[in-house]
Amino acid sequence: MSFRDATIPQDWPRLADWLGAAGHRLDLDTPPRQFAGGLANLNYLVSLDGAPAVLRRPPPGPAAEGANDMAREWRVLSRLNAGFPLAPRGIAFCEDVAVLGAPFQLIEYRPGIAIGGSLPAGLPADAPARLTSALIAAMAALHGLDPASVGLEGLGKPTGFLGRQVEGWARRAAAVWPDGDAPASVAHIVAWLRANLPADAPASLIHSDFKFDNMLVDSATLEAKAVIDWDMATLGDPLFDLGVLLSYWIEPGDPQALHALAQVPSLEPGFPTRAEVAAAYFAASGRAPVPLDFHLALARFRLAVAWMQLYRRWQAGAVHGNRYLDFEKLALAILGHVAATL
């Protein structure tokens, strides 16, 4: 794990007082450190009750629709570990914004490395295959879990899930491109998605952002240690999770502009193709293979709009860093690619 200087000052003594009233002890002699990864929510390594834990909170400013939902994530993490051990345990949750300026939670710390857009040096030659297998196995295990077995059968509204995703992301697109400024590809994509909406599939627990940097692995064995970032978890079509993963999975033959996405290291030698990832998922989950054109188009549309949301937040000064500078260009490139494939 890597760390950076805190982007938001926290009132650590006030947090210590709140935790003390809840029966926990925050050790301020061990300075909290902010994790360097992530594009939205803020995560800090703290010492709680004599052990490392993670403080997790939203970024400043108004949250984008459906994002940064600490209450939803707490509901999931306070229950899911009983049936899905890769989910860290929830420790404490606070809705009172007077403590830190936003709702926040404390969750179990799991050591491990998160793989981003490139592989760390020194991994074995078969690391791409092993990492992909671990990711697919974890996704299939989550989708195979009975939500009722962990008390999450009421999470979300699975009926009409994909249709709501289409309309929700169409709404978000209108918000990030106001006054009719959206590129023509947006209307084309939304119309195609509405016309090709599949029937409801049997619902599963889904993560909604299942990719390598949301799975911590042991640096020596490459075994999965944890799946993190559950604030968008819900009940829905499991192929949505697969589509989201494939939307990040850039191949050498994709338009050069998309190579800058760099969210998974799929361009490096040894990684399977999107078709091979999909086949591996269907084999691991025991589901019959089906075409994924709709799910991939929806996931790519979502990705483009989400990148524009982050760009707008960067423009407004709500998030900082040069990495957001080209997010608009990348969002437009993704939209163009989607529209050209429909």
UniProtKB/TrEMBL annotation:
Statement: the UniProt record of this protein carries the keyword Transferase: yes
Keyword line: Transferase
Gene3D superfamilies given in the database record: 3.90.1200.10, Phosphorylase Kinase, domain 1 (3.30.200.20)
Residues spanning the signal sequence: none
Domain Aminoglycoside phosphotransferase span(s) in chain numbering: 33-270
InterPro entries documented for this protein: ACAD10-like, ACAD10_11_N, Aminoglycoside_PTrfase, Kinase-like_dom_sf
GO molecular function: transferase activity
Pfam families: APH
Name this protein carries in UniProt: Phosphotransferase family protein
